[in-house]
Design brief:
Helices cover 12% and strands 19% of the residues. The protein is built from two helices and five strands. The strands form two sheets. A three-stranded antiparallel sheet has the order 3-4-5. A two-stranded antiparallel sheet has the order 1-2. The termini are close together.
Length: 119
């Protein structure tokens, strides 16, 4: 189950508030302590789960904007650390749909979308 809005946005069409970027470590901590809609088992998605939201036929945003309204065309952290660099983690860009495994975990301009269940 995906949260419809990225963190910082709310409302039926995600038009209230603005997306809140954070570092990877802060994103993990936020997810761990997050409670929403009566559930407290929210987490960062794996890069594979996040990449599954990408619609390759679209750009800017590359996500279904009927389901995920007002989605920023920006990068979103996954919970997947980079195997090739202990200072990096994976994210997915919802502008072009590409995944990047070498984003420094201290970057504080990447957004988060939470998921629960699975894995």
């Amino acid at each position: 189950v995906w949260k419809q809005c990225v963190e910082g946005q709310s409302g039926a069409d995600c038009s209230t508030g603005s997306a809140t970027p954070m570092t990877w470590t802060n994103a993990l901590a936020h997810a761990e302590g997050h409670s929403f809609a009566g559930h407290s088992d929210w987490r960062l998605p794996s890069v594979k789960e996040l990449r599954n939201l990408v619609e390759d036929c679209r750009t800017g945003p590359s996500i279904n904007d009927q389901v995920f309204k007002n989605n920023p065309s920006s990068q979103v952290w996954s919970g997947s650390p980079s195997a090739g660099d202990s200072n990096s983690a994976w994210n997915v860009s919802f502008y072009g749909g590409d995944a990047n495994g070498y984003s420094n975990r201290n970057y504080d301009f990447i957004h988060i979308r939470l998921v629960r269940g699975g894995q």
